[in-house]
Amino acid sequence: MNEFQDQVAVVTGASRGIGRATALELAQLGARVLVNYQQNATAAQNVVDEIIQLGGEALAYAADVSDAAAVREMIKATLSRWGRLDILINNAGITADAPLMRLRPDQWQKVIDVDLTSVFLCCQAALPTMQQQRYGRIINVGSLAGLAGNVGQANYAAAKAGLVGFSRALAREVACDGVTVNIVAPGYIETELLDSAAPAVRAWALEAIALRRFGAPEEVAAAIAFLASSRSSYITGHVLVIDGGWVMP
Q1: Which strand (E) or helix (H) includes residue 10?
Q2: How many Cβ atoms from other residues are within 10 Å of residue 117's Cβ?
Q3: Per residue in 79-138, pLDDT tens?
Q4: Could you tell me which CATH class the domain 8-239 is placed in?
Q5: Is 211 exposed, middle or buried (0-12, 13-18, 19+ CB in 10 A)?
């Protein structure tokens, strides 16, 4: 399938987990992909190599997406390489968990910077090109923590909740420019973060999930690819929960 043929995507935090699965999914559908990472160059290059083996085109690019200058250079490199930018997936994120009374100011600020401010910076850098093209898809990766809260994650929940408000405000701002902005909110997905969870937490989560299993990164990537496609042209400002039926209104 070549659904994204001739399109260019930037995926932040793409060396592992949901970001990696998304980069591969978009590439399989024909997109040229900038694989953003911050530290693990080997993992990022492995993603690029997989894309090339699939017959696609990709570029690994190191950038701290919470740094405005680094983000501008990343978008500049994308345009220099491919001349356009159609899809922006803001996936990069971290956690620094602690009960509120033990949460240090630096833990609070770092999570806000990486999980929320980075999205602002990437959108601001990418939008001029999308607006000029009169086309763009922005998908921001949130979390159920931003909708329902989570014990010991006041910083993370605040960042992800802020992401929803930010995305909906931006969706209204750029709707007339042919740009849509949506959010995916994954639940418990088989990533390194879940691997580090205590056995009791995993058991509790499995019991609470209607489908009685954890999600795969590829299942989130498939939803992101849909929102990045022309098939989602009448969807913007939407939060798509991907949780196997853990939280139901």
Answers
A1: strand 8-11
A2: 18
A3: 999 999 999 999 999 999 999 999 999 999 999 999 999 999 999 999 999 999 999 999
A4: alpha beta
A5: exposed
Largest CA distance in the chain: 51
Three-state DSSP at 76 gives helix
Candidates 204, 199, 121, 125; CA nearest to 166 is 121
CA–CA distances in Å: residue 190 to residues 34, 78, 206, 213, 241: 23, 30, 12, 10, 16
What CA–CA distance (Å, rounded) separates 65 from 111?
12
Tokens of 202: 């995993």
Total-model pTM: 0.96
What's the token pair of residue 17?
A: 């987990």
Encoded tokens for 191: 């990533």
Residue numbers annotated as active site: 156
Q: What is the pLDDT of residues 47-86, one digit of tens each?
A: 999 999 999 999 999 999 999 999 999 999 999 999 999 9
Which pair of tokens denotes residue 165?
Answer: 């408000």
Q: What is the mean pLDDT of the chain?
A: 95
